[in-house]
Each structure stands twice: as C-alpha cells, then as structure tokens.
Amino acid sequence: MRMKTLFAAGLLAFSAFTVQRAVAEDITLEFVVWNYSLDTIQDNVKKFEEANPGIKVKVTDYTWPDYQDSLVLRFRSGTTTDVIYGGQDWLPAWGAAGFIAPLDSVAPAGAVEDLAKDIAGFALTDVTYKDKVYGLPYYADTISFIYNKKILTDAGIPVPQTWEDVTAAAEKLKAGGMEHPIVYEYNQELPNFYDAFVAQAYGRGAELFDKDLNPLFADPNNEAYKQLQWIADAYSKGLVQSETHESKIIPAMNTGAHAFTIVYTYVLAALNNAADQPRAGEFALAPMPGSKHSTLGFAKSYVVTAQAAADPARGEAAWKFVNFMAGKPYTVAKRWAVEKGLGFGQLPLFQDKDVIDAWGKWADVKALGDQAAAAKAGTYTEYSSVWSAYFRPLLAKAMVGEASVEQTMKDGAERWNQLKEQFANR
Amino acid sequence: MWTIKRFPAYWLLPALLPVALMTIYPVAYALWVSLHSVTLLFPGEPFVWLDNYKRVVTSNYFRDALGNSLLFTALATPLVVIVGTLVALFLQRRFFGSQIVRSIVLLPWVLPGAISAVLWIWVFHPSFGVLNGLLRDLHLINGSIPWLTSPRLALISVVVAHVWTQIPFAVVLIMAALSGINSETLEAGAIDCRSPLKRFRHIVFPEIKAMIVVLVVYNALTAFTSYDLVYAMTGGGPGTATTLLSFQIWRESFSMYDFGTGSAVAFIVVAISAVLIAAITRALPSDLFASE
Fold first, then answer.
1. What's the whole-model pTM score?
2. Do A261 and A321 have their domain in common?
C-alpha cells in the first residue's frame, strides 16, 4: 500500500512537471510579416528565442502587395496569428473590426506609456487608435524628394525649391536630351501611391481635411488640388516615367536617365549603395518642394492581434516579443537603421553614434533630421483605407489625363463624405 | 450485394462529396455573400437583394474594366491558338535538338505568373529593358518606347506576356491532336499535294479542329479572368489602361473590405464568361465534334 502511494505520488509529480514544462514550451507565436529582408527578421527572431526560452516564433511572410489581403483572410478565417506588421492606414479599420488589440491589454501596467514617450509625434499618431496605442514602431520614415546631384550640377540646375522649379528643371533636362527627368511610383493598388501624393501636397502646405474630418481638397485653391494638377501637367508634357514599384525605381535612377523621384526615404540608402548600384553617391534628398517643405511621416509597427490578447499566456509572450523588437534599448530598431537604412520612430536613436555614422554614408543626416522634424502624419480613420482604395484609381486616371482634376477631387470628396456618414450611422 | 450496377450513386459519393464540399459550398456561400452586405467595417450582414450588383454595374470603374477585359480576351485568345498551332506544327518535325527545343518551349508553362511578370518587365522596361536596348543597338530607335507606361502600348505589352505564358499549353494539346492523325493519311497528302498550306487546310485542320475549339474556349476564359501577370506588370495602369474586371474582385473584397460587392463582381465575371463560351461555341461550325 505504501509503495503504491509512493508510486502514485511520484507519477503525479512527474506528470505535473512534464505538463508544466510542456505548457512553458508550447507557446509558438505566429508572426506575420511582409518579406522585406527576411534574413534579418529571422535573425532577430532567433535572438529573441535565445533570450526567451520557452517561446518560439514562427515567421510567415507575404509580399508587400499581397500583405494586406492575406492578413484580412487570416483574420476572417481565424488562422492563428499573434503578432503582425501593422500599417498606419489599416490600423484604425483593423482596430474597429476587432482584429487587433491595444498594447496595454497585454503589457505590464505603465510599460506602453513609458515607451510612448520616446516615439516621434507622427509615428505615435500612426500607431494610436481611439487614444490607445496599438503598436510599437518597426520603422518610421518619411517620403522624400530625391534628386541626382551630378545630373543637376552638370546641367547647372540648382536644387528645386518649389514644384514650379521642378518643372523648369525637368523641362531644361528634357530639352537637353533626357526623355523623362522624373520617375514616379505609380501603382494604384498600393497605398504608397496615395502617400506619395499626400507628401507632395504637404510640401505645398496642404491640409486635406479639416479638424472635423471634412474633405478640403476639392477646392481649386487647396494645395492638394494644385499638386494633382501639377502632376497631370508634368505627365502631359512627357516629363514623367511611371514605375510600378520602388524596386524598379532604384535601377531606373541608376541608369542616369532620370534626375528626380519621390519615394520612401529608405530608398535613398539603396540608391546610394555602392555594392550594387553604379551611380551610388550621386543621389541626395532635398526638402519636399513647396512653400512649407513638409512631408508625410508614417510608421509601420509591431501589433498584437486580438486573438493573441484573448489568451493571457499568448498575450504575455506576444508582448515580450513586441517589446524585444521595438522596445528599449532599441537594439532591433537600431539594427534596421544601421544595416538597412530604415527610419525609426524611437527618438533616442537620433543621438546614437552608430546610427549617425551609418546613415552618413548614404545621406546628409542633418537633412534627414530636419525632414523628420517637418514631417506630418496622414489622416487615418476607420474608413480611410477603404476610401484610399477608391480614390487611388481616380488619382491614377487624373495623372495621365484620363479624367479631369476637378472631377477626380469632387468624386473623392463625395465618397469620403458618404463613408464618413455611413460609419457615423453604423 | 453492394455492386456498382445496383447502387451507382453510392459508389460515386466518395468522389462527389469532396467536389460538393470544395466547389458547391464555396460557390453557394459566395452567392449568399453577394446578396448581403458583408463588410469588415460595419456589423451585421443584412440581406440587400441585388444592391451589390447594382453598385458594381453603375460604378465608375466597371465600364473601363469590362472594356479592357474584353479587348484583352479578344487579342490574347486568337494569338495563343494561332501561335500555339504554328509552334506545334514546327515542333512535330524531327530535327537535330528537337527534344531540347520541345522542353524549352514548355518552360513558360511552369513559371508562376509573378515570375513571368518580372521577366517581361525586364524585357519591356523603358529605362533598362532588353527590347528598347536591342532596338537602340540596331539603330531602329533613338530614345525609348514606353511599352509599359503608355496606355495603348501597356495593354499590348501585357497581352504579349500573357500569350507567352499560355502558348506551351496550347502546344501540348495541339501536338497531342497532331499525333493522333494517321501517318498514312499525311504521307498520301504529301504525295498528292505539294502546298503545305493546302495540306494543313484540307488534311490537318479537320483532324485538330475539335482541339482548337477547346483551346479557344479555354483561352478565352483564362484571358478574361487573368489577374496575377497583368497586376504584377502594370498594377492596372497607366491610369486604368490595363485594369481588368478580375482586379475588381480583389479590390472590392480586400482593399475596400466589401466582400458582398467583391462576390457580386465575381458572379458578374462568371456570367460574362458563360456568355462568352456560349457565343464562341455558337459561332463555330455545327459539325465540329461530329465523327468523320
């Protein structure tokens, strides 16, 4: 009898030990990303796993153009998804749909507020929905006006300060034999397309919406209206060559057949990468043309799904992972900045010597800092990504002269108002 | 006994059930969704009758996208069939290295659409594309031709890329049909008629015309529902020059989060496809499938 009791107790203790061990080891977080620099992502994950025994992270990647719809399918089908890359334009809609969770629902008390103090204003705006922080910056960047220094110097053209200067410079270059001095990222299916337009309008000092979210851009005196007219004119004069993606802008600019482009700032690092670009070192950023020289700042972020937050153990693991990737001492954010030239939302990194040294190789760090300081966040609501998907094809048509600027802006404003009303009455 | 003759339906069940689950259920569900307001942003899924369909056909993109899709289909379908038949006739001959050439011709078939798109971008790209480089080297042009950035040329460029991806399948089917022709008939034809064109018209074509009809119908459907290659090459632009109707299924569902309208577009595509098939088969000679 005593032996039996001892045996049973031993068995119980062993079971408890193995169960506990299994529970601790069983957490495998599903981390969904777009496939930019997967090797670096996997290496960061490996470092996290080493630092956090008991938590594994499985990375699933999609291409950038397929990312949003793949995520929506995962959410709708209930596919296990714990931590994702979030975009500023989708965040409010996904928050409203209940797909993602505020970080304070998984983080220890005060942790998110503490980290938020270090995040740049526009980046914090982009990760906040209904006064709750939903993400920590994976990277934060601005959209830049980039030019080829050598081409402008050789042609005796000063760096353009306004969009009218850009036209004059492009016309001069065209007269000198350059077919299309401006390369423009033109893909109505990508949010970049709308973001680049907003950045240009911000350069002119445009306000696209008032404080009550009423659209202002249909007014011909609005600077966004003027900027669309400027793009349409540039296309009609044959100054612009379209490219469907920034990955094609890099080799196109490096042919020396183009002088100007408007892209995410990190593209400048790729343009000036001496390892694989023949004209590396020729490219620089200038303040966004226009009277205000402002531009669009944005943040992509690490976001925890509502599905993960609903399970305390997974939620805790997800927070640990997000904090490792974007929290203090900002090791991962710094790595992206130093190795890949990605911008960051964590302000202390602007003082980091390694970051300053690394960025100095491909950009004027002071100019970058000035641009980040002048950057403004976009206007993002629950319905803005839906509206943007509607508006982008209209913009595309107006740019190439298939529709009038007036009608495009009018239709865009009408659709915004419809969605706003629909959402208010939902 | 449970013999096939006594209970044929039961014996079909193992095959029919997966088909029902994998095909009928999703289609029925999509039909249900197309008649309801199913959006991510708004709660509830109220029945809206045909509102989603009305919204699609009155939208500002529908006319452009439908026109592009029909033009794309009208250009791509005959090209695939004609070029595929010519290539098959050529490859049927025995010549040195013919086996290797046959394998190479099939390559585009195994490439995913997105990869084919990347290849064709490198061909057509205005700044660094192979085609413009070649034309410049041959002193045929001075500047560059905007293959992908001019609205008119962009549609032609994506049609060329699409045709390239579809030719191998056409070649395989036509070669299969050609191999079924009695060799004695061909030999007799070669003795009686010296003109290859006449031999093709009077001997070969009657033997392969049923396969050609299959190819026409198949390629019309493939072209009308084409998506990945065109999307990856042009993103639907410039403007809406290469925006196809199948884009709209994706855009409505995943960009606008409106699955009801997305499903309605899908059913409109299916309906137009059915009309296309009916029109093609009615336009063809009635004796096509008759045994000779």
1. 0.80
2. no
